[in-house]
Amino acid sequence: MLKILRFLSKSAFSVVLIILLLCIQAKTDLDLPDYTSKMINIGIQQGGIENVSPDAISKIDMENLLIFTKDDKQIMDAYELISREILSNKDYEKYEKEYPLLEKEDLYILKNLKQKELDNLNTVMSEPLMELYVVTNREANQELIASMM
Predict the structure, then answer these.
(1) Which positions ≥6 away from 35 have C-beta within 8 Å?
(2) Digit-coded pLDDT (tens) for 43-62
């Protein structure tokens, strides 16, 4: 055993490097199924949309959305209203680059939420968003009527 350690001491850097590379290989091998699962679930099945709740929604659409739900408080607590009048010039310019619609109307922006809170919000908003889409989208209405006939 001492002879083996004596020989390894001459190439200690290489041994440490090999062990480090083996750990990296094991980590990437274990992460590969998760990456593949996310590509299939989010990328293909959900069309690249990770969350149901939108990052930004206009004030008018939010008011219409709240008609279809009883969880108004939970939804409103997750969003922050921004408008040209409320924001400073610096903040307005930052938000306007990200949300060009801000120039025309007020927006609700999703706050930074923990994953559990975001999952709860997604559950609460999924049905009202679908109902709002069906009511406001003429093509969806025609397809729904055709399927009912």
Answers:
(1) none
(2) 777 676 777 888 888 888 88
Render pLDDT for 135-148 as a digit per residue (tens, 0 to 9). 887 776 677 777 77
Q: How far apart are CA 83 and CA 148, in angstroms?
A: 42
CB atoms within 10 A of CB 46: 12
Phi, psi of 4 (to 5 degrees): -65, -45
Burial of residue 73 (number of CB atoms within 10 Å: 0-12, 13-18, 19+) = exposed
Instruction: Report which residue type is found at 51.
Output: N
**Entry pTM:** 0.62
SS3 assignment, position 118: helix
Sheet strands (E) in 30-144 = 56-58, 79-82, 107-110
Q: Which residue, 124, 148, 141, 146, is CA-closest to 65?
A: 124
